[in-house]
Every structure is written in C-alpha cells, then in structure tokens.
Amino acid sequence: MSPADARGRWQDRYAASLMGVFGPPQQMLVSGRGCRVRDAEGRELLDMLGGIAVNALGHAHPALTEGLAEQMRRLGHVSNLFTTEEQLVLAERLLEVSDLPEGSRVFFANSGSEANEAALKAVLRHRQDTGRSRILALTGGFHGRTVGALSLTHKPAFRDPFGPLVDGVEFLPPHDLDALTEAMGAGDVAGIFLEPIQGEAGVVPLDPGYLGAVRRLTRDHGALMILDEVQTGIGRTGDWFRFQGAARRAGEDLTPDYLTVAKGLGSGVPVGAMIAAGTQNSARLAAGQHGTTFGGGPLAAAAGRITMETIEADGLLENARTVGARLADGLRTLDGVTEVRQFGLHLGVDVAADARGLVAVARDHGLIINAVGERTLRLAPPLILTAAEADEFLERFAPVLASAAPADPDHRPEGP
Ligand SMILES: *Cc1c(COP(=O)(O)O)cnc(C)c1O
C-alpha cells in the first residue's frame, strides 16, 4: 500500500467516525520522543507547537512515563471524597511558586475551560453578594469553549451560533484606559477576566502598566481580577507565571484574585487548576457550591508534580528564556518575518506570507508550527527545547519562508 493510500484510509475513517468540529486533521501521529514526533508515514517532525503549549516536557519524557506508570500501579483514581499525597503535594507546590498571599487555596479541574468556569462561579457569587451586575473581559480574549468560559471569549464566530450566554458580560478593548476607568467607575463591575498575553489572538501581550491599572481600579472599586494563565502559566514565559514577570517590569503588585492554569501543568495529562488568592477569595465558593469527579485525581496530580519538579530540577525556566531568545533573534534575521513577540518559549511571529500556507509548507520540511491569524504564527515548543534544536528549526524554517507565495508588498519586513 502506498503512503497516499494509507493517508486516504485514516482520513476517511476520521471523517466517518469523528465530529467535524476541528476540521480535517493535518496528519496522524504515532509516536514521539523529546521534541520530535513521528507520523503514520514514518516521517519525523520537529514539534515547535508542543500540543499547543501543553507538552512542557516534550514527548515520552522518562520522568513522566515512569512516574505515571508507577502511580497507576499504586492508585489511579479515588474521587474527591478522599485525598491523596499527590494532590496535597501539587496544591502546595502551586501555592509556593505563585507567591500568593496567606490563605490562598487551590481548586483542581481537568482543563482550562473548567478552571475558568470555577473562576466565573466565584465571580457570580461575588455578583450575588454585592449586587454588582457587570462582568468584563477583553476583545481578542480567549477563555475556553464551555458555556461559561465561552461567555468570556470574545470571538463572534465562537459565540454567535449559541445565542444568549451568561448575562452581563461586556468586552473592552485592551489598553483603553478611558474605557476601563469609565466601566470601573460605575461601581457595578463584579470582575474582569484577562490573559496577560493573549495567546489565541497571536501571542499579544498586555502592557504591564495596563495590568497595573486593572489591578488598582479593581481594588478601588471592589471588583475581582481574574488572570487566565492557562496558556502562559507553568514556565511557558520563563517565569512560573507571566504576571510575575509583568509585575517586575511594571514595578507594582499584579497579584490577581483568581489565577487559572491548565495547558502545560500536566505535560499532556489533563490537569487544570484555579488558585484563589488570600482567605476571602478562597472562601467564596462554599462547601457544596462547586465540584468535579476527576479533578485533582492522583494520576493527574502526579503528572503536575512531575512536570513542576522537572521544570525546577532541569532549569527549564532559564532554558525557556535563553532558547526562546535565541529563536527570536534568529527569526528576526529571516526574510519574510515582520515582527516577533517572544516571552520565554511563547512566540508570536508575524510573517509577510499567508500563515496557514506556511504551516503546510513547514510540515513538508519536517516542522510542526501553528497559525493564529492570517499573518501570524505561534510557536510554543516543549520547555526542554535545546539550543541545537532551535538552530535546526531556524535552518529548516528559512527555506519554508523563501518558498512561500510572493509577499504582499504591504507586509514587507522593515529594513535594517
Ligand atoms: C486553551 C485555553 C483555554 C481553554 O482551555 P481548554 O483546556 O481547551 O478548555 C482557556 N484560556 C486560555 C488562555 C487558553 O489558552
């Protein structure tokens, strides 16, 4: 059977058995190791997307495969009627690295959307307690696809097919201080959700000064600030959390009321968490007011613990900073790259050519990359990416850009 026949078969099987919400998959993958995966046709690809900022430790990391096998042999699931050492250790570790005030507490979920659902329920409790009716989020923001999280997600194509969602949500343009001040000044805002770097919008950072203004205004007006670090958390940007790096730059405290994480936390095993800052926020959801069957189970918690331990033991925060900077420097020298936004190993790369077209060409050059806009690529490789792998990517990516459709003259890179 020729490779083309094999491809037809899995594509047909996919179309005949899976719901079409994701569109046709690019390839069928069969195995992976480190930053490389192998497809059904036996080709090896350098994975510069890491399962969309999920596979922090790459593929088949020995600490994770052995640790999870060992955990499964001992205890795989117990329900939240019980606790386990794994759950306690991961919660304690999250509280340690997040620098949140005394009295902070963790709620475990299974995904980013669910972590944000928990935060939204906390905001709804605050709304009921105070009579503050409005909830704010930002245009360009993405918080997930479940109905609550979708209510906070701006993109009309995602929301409009579903009619009215959670009521009272309004969207502000990022960096519009007048709009923010006016909205907060009315005194009827229960909370605001924001990503410190808008991932799905193209790795677009919020200015640390703007985050500072949000923090001050929410404090002054009794509104809650929820930072969605589902994509940026757990080392992706070279800090455990982006708000910590942004706070250093802003020179002010950006401690949120609630912090949500997921993607990179389990290195591929689904784990999400909401962290409530301080005693009052931690008590907002009372016993019986929220829950989950799977969240915080021993297998998922072990994945989180192993991921965080390995990030620490192997210096992966530092690695994300240095290898990320090396990637950005290299990308900026390439013809056809118009702008690079780099935060650790979280990169938005604006290109002169059609970004989706480049993804397909890159695949033929043995690279997995991702388009998040017509002219924007996203790179979110494993945090274990080496300098040599970054160089290999740059070497293979230059001809990808060169072979792209002629650039639109409006999108020429700036001269030297
Ligand atoms: C991916 C993502 C989500 C949703 O996470 P899921 O695990 O897909 O539910 C929410 N917020 C941000 C910022 C994300 O990047």
Structure summary, number of beta strands: 17
Report the average pLDDT across residues. 95
Largest sheet entry: 7 strands, mixed
> In angstroms, what separates the terminal alpha carbons?
51 Å
Radius of gyration: 22 Å
CATH classification class of the domain at 64-313: Alpha Beta
CATH homologous superfamily identity of the domain at 64-313: Type I PLP-dependent aspartate aminotransferase-like (Major domain)
Assign an overall shape: globular
CATH A-level architecture of the domain at 64-313: 3-Layer(aba) Sandwich
Briefly note the CATH topology name of the domain at 64-313. Aspartate Aminotransferase, domain 2
Number of helices: 15
Overall helicity:
40-55%
Strand content: 15-25%
Bound molecules: pyridoxal-5'-phosphate
- Outline the low-pLDDT stretches: 411-416
Strand order of the largest sheet: 4-12-11-10-7-5-6
Give the structural class: alpha/beta
Plain-language structure description:
41% of the residues lie in helices and 18% in strands. With 416 residues, it is α/β, with parallel strands linked by helices. It has a domain at 64-313: Type I PLP-dependent aspartate aminotransferase-like (Major domain) (Aspartate Aminotransferase, domain 2), CATH 3.40.640.10. α3 (62-74) runs antiparallel to α12 (298-313) and α8 packs parallel to α9. The termini are far apart. The model is unreliable at 411-416 (pLDDT under 50). It binds pyridoxal-5'-phosphate (PLP). Residues 111-113, 116, 142-144, 195, 199, 228, 230-231, 262-263 line the site of pyridoxal-5'-phosphate (PLP).
